[in-house]
Amino acid sequence: MSTVVFLLAPQLHLLDLAGPAQAFSTAADLGHDYRLQFVGEQEDVPTAQGISLRASITWPELSPDDLVVVPGWRSPEHESHAKFSASTLSRLSAHHHGGGIVASVCAGAFALGQAGLLDGRRCTTHYDLQGELARRHARATVVRDVLYVTDGRLVSSAGIASGIDLALHLLARRHGPGAAAQVAREMVVYARRNGNEQQASAMLRFRSHVNDVVHRVQDIIDFRFAQPLTLPELASAVSVGERTLTRAFCRATGMTPLRYQQLLRLERAEHLIGHGATVEAAARDVGFGDARMLRRLRNRGSDRPLPARRAAPES
What we know:
Keywords: Transcription, Transcription regulation. By secondary structure, the chain is α/β, with parallel strands linked by helices. It contains 13 helices and ten strands.
């Protein structure tokens, strides 16, 4: 079981906390072993939205498999640096140096900076705070206008709702994109990514329709995209004819089920290649028999093929 510790500062923003907490809680409901704990320097933690939260002042024992998340806050002095004690900041630093992941939402990046974790690293925060973060931590590279930034075991996100994107990214990194897509769907949000990848995952980019049959087929493909899947098999699984499924799928997504599967394979392969895998290894991992098909798909005019037409709205 992995522990996710949320470090709560006074005047924290509820959604900075609730978004990622809900994502990991949903992942636990879906069978992934997560335990959430909330710690602070005081037991009663007032929030910016007027409600107080109860935190533990005792930290749990942490291992490299665990995660510490620092949600953001509102400062009455209009300065976003945290007022955590040296011992709390030392715990953040020790967890990271011990092999664990440390993440921040919004102004939480200032706590990471105070802990010495931003020096020489890429990071981000809410767009209103980026200038201040860059001034206070000149040795950090503040990346502007992105949802989140990953630099090794340090992950920082922009403001408020982007904490959900950060959590989904961490879940995808640990459990794969299918698991993150399932959590996102349960939460009725779009899975997003950052860096050189498209911010909207293909698994969620083509979900803005109301056709339940197509959603069920997409669920099958999402979780088995690396396996051989045939149109007869998919049609049988949802109890419709092959032609009916193809028409409905094209109308809802703008592509055939096979094209959708290829897109998921390509997107996952690009992710693996971007993290150091060879083309051959990525091709095998996503289900291509060899690297030739992957190379052909990557060389088709754009590294990221899009459907030939936009999905038509459903009545």
